[in-house]
Design goal:
By secondary structure, the protein is α+β, with helices and mostly antiparallel strands. The chain folds into two domains: 168 residues, GAF domain (Beta-Lactamase, 2-Layer Sandwich); 55 residues, Winged helix-like DNA-binding domain superfamily/Winged helix DNA-binding domain (Arc Repressor Mutant, subunit A, Orthogonal Bundle), CATH 1.10.10. It is built from eight helices and four strands; from the N terminus they run ααββαααββααα.
Length: 251
């Protein structure tokens, strides 16, 4: 006869195996937006899930950054407009919420009445994605169903696994954005450096003077410094306004 310890070990083993399978499934989907892949995976793997979305909290503002259906975006928007709802609280409280009868919900009465009446939503699962990103944003996973008491304990566990993988997906989005910004900065710096070299050689000015000339040209033309630098590198000409000298009058 198996002991309680054996049963617990078997259960944990199944959880670990399922967690790995979900990760493998997500990696196959992330040729597109990884956050969108997380939302779509929630709908695929949780039987009564109909729509899902990812909410991002940054600078005190909630926005939907991935969704499986416009209905999910509409449901999110109701939460944002009333300033209350399972997803908002899941993010702020670092908790998991599973309302099962939103039309008669005491915790979020205004949101519950509106989302039930306007969209027919009665059940939700809401998670905060584990804080993996090193910027100031926090993400949350929202899963919607029009059925009452649609989600059971197993669904909550599967959602938790998806949310855990979702944190890594959110980090990948932040990392990709940082890499893109860094690459753009490197390109801009290289182009500015080339333009400075052209000015230093052609006009016999110092490095600081060359940079000041580029800044003045940027200010005068109301164009980005990088764009001015590109022109200088290609043409050798610096677009500065002509300096009009006053005429000297004879006494």
């Amino acid at each position: 006869m198996a002991s309680d310890d054996d049963t617990t070990t078997d259960d944990l083993g199944r959880v670990a195996e399922r967690f790995r399978d979900i990760g493998d499934h997500l990696r196959k989907m992330t040729h597109r937006d990884p956050l969108e892949a997380v939302a779509r995976m929630a709908v695929e793997l949780i039987d009564r899930a109909e729509w899902a979305s990812i909410t991002r909290l940054a600078d005190g503002e909630f926005t939907t950054v991935a969704l499986t259906d416009d209905m999910a975006c509409e449901a999110d928007a109701i939460q944002y407009s009333v300033g209350s709802g399972p997803c908002l609280d899941a993010i702020i409280d670092d908790a998991v919420y599973r309302p099962s009868d939103l039309s008669h919900c005491e915790k979020w009465p205004e949101f519950g009445r509106r989302v039930s009446r306007e969209l027919g939503v009665e059940s939700m699962l809401s998670y905060r994605l584990l804080k993996e990103t090193d910027d100031e944003s926090i993400h949350g996973l929202n899963i919607y169903s029009r059925g009452r008491a649609a989600f059971d304990d197993d669904d909550v566990l599967v959602g938790l696994m998806i949310a855990t993988h979702g944190a890594l997906a959110a980090q990948s989005v932040v990392d990709a954005r940082k890499i893109d910004n860094l690459q753009q900065a490197l390109v801009s710096n290289r182009e500015i450096g080339t333009a400075m070299g052209v000015l230093m050689t052609r006009h016999h000015v110092t490095r600081d003077q060359a940079f000041d000339l580029l800044r003045m040209a940027s200010q005068n033309s109301n164009r980005k410094l990088r764009d001015v630098a590109l022109d200088v590198a290609e043409t050798g000409e610096l677009p500065l306004p002509a300096v009009r000298r006053g005429e000297r009058r004879e006494a």
